[in-house]
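Please annotate this fold before class:
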Amino acid sequence: MEERHAEEMRLLGLTIAFYRRARGLTQSELAEAAQISRTHMSNIEAPNSHTSLSLNKLMDIAEALEVPVKSLFDFKH
């Protein structure tokens, strides 16, 4: 991942974690719903991880969280 997008990816991961906890889901449950490994979900949410995320998987995560994709980019939480 390019350094210039690191902060946005960190905030995206934290926002996904916020909505996951609000739904009462574990990382494993969300990962299963989004059809990714728990390790990948953990890396997505980890603030210091530099993992990438496809748009398709982002949409799967939003669907599993029952939120619009655009809500995952609301970094005010």
User: Anything to note?
Assistant: The CA atoms of residues 31 and 38 lie 5 Å apart. Helices lie at 6-22, 27-34, 38-45, 55-65.
